[in-house]
Amino acid sequence: MSAHQLNIAIFASGNGTNAENIIRYFNTGDSHPSGMTVSLVVASRPDAYVIERARRLGVPVRVIDRATLNDPDLILPLLRQYGVDVIILAGFLMMIPQFLIRRYPEKIINIHPSLLPRHGGKGMYGRNVHEAVLRSGDTRTGITIHFVSEEYDRGRIIFQTSVDVEPGDTVDDIGSKVQLLEQQHFPRVIHETFAS
After folding, report:
1. Would strands 140-147 and 36-43 be described as parallel, antiparallel, or unpaired?
2. 32 classed as catalytic
3. Contacts 24+ apart (CB under 8 A), 169-173
4. Are strands 157-164 and 140-147 parallel, antiparallel or unpaired?
5. Which residue among 54, 85, 117, 165 is least crowded, i.e. fewest CB within 10 A of its CB?
6. Who's near 47: CB < 8 A, 6+ residues apart?
7. Do strands 61-63 and 84-89 pair parallel, antiparallel, or not at all (unpaired)?
8. Residues 61-93: pLDDT tens digits?
9. How confident is the model over 22-52, as pLDDT tens digits?
């Protein structure tokens, strides 16, 4: 790791459990890794609960709409203002524009709640994914952490881990198992990916 502080922006659209976990990992407590910090949370909805979580933890928040995300003259200066080096998608439901992917090559990471390439693509997020896992009869599911490319859920895979889907599991059961994997692994994988 160089002496330069790596600044992380988390892009989120919803409840923010992953965002809070990442912020706590990098920004709080005695054991947080040096050299990386969450400097900004970008929310796509003004009512997203991630905003409250970030504010409680002292991280600046900006709410953007689709037009702002897709305008390089608006989004790039915002990211420069906060010195953003790395972007983490934590339940962010808008497609990342090509110019942003080119500006941050292999510096944008997403987490997907299944074992890609299964149950990926447009519209496949959150509960929709767990419903697809249940319908398909999969006996295992899990998480995939991957670089963002110009196609949904097609970027190079960094990390996968899985959990059993038991007979009788509901969509909520699967969701709980997957969320536990996210909490256990996402911050660590971010750190390991960019700390070398």
Report:
1. unpaired
2. no
3. 169/134, 170/134, 171/127, 171/130, 171/131, 171/134
4. antiparallel
5. 117
6. none
7. unpaired
8. 999 999 999 999 999 999 999 999 999 999 998
9. 999 999 866 666 789 999 999 999 999 999 9
- Distance separating alpha carbons of residues 49 and 12, to the nearest angstrom: 10
Q: What is the DSSP string of 87-107?
A: EEESS--SPPPHHHHHHSTT-
The token pair that represents 18 in the structure block? 């992953």
Catalytic pick among 4, 32, 112, 146: 112
Q: pTM for the complete prediction?
A: 0.93
DSSP for 118-133, written as a single string: TT-STT--HHHHHHHH
Q: How far is Cα 109 from Cα 50, in angstroms, rounded to an integer?
A: 18
CA atoms 112, 4, 56, 97: torsion sign: negative
CA-wise closest residue to 41 among 4, 74, 78, 67 = 78
* Domains of the chain, first to last: 1-105 (3.40.50.170), 111-196 (3.40.50.170)
Rounded CA gap, 54 and 42, in Å? 10
Token duo for residue 89: 């998608």
- By the 8 A CB rule, do 42 and 119 touch? no
Residue at token pair 């295992």: 140
Tokens (6 digits) for 32: 């947080």
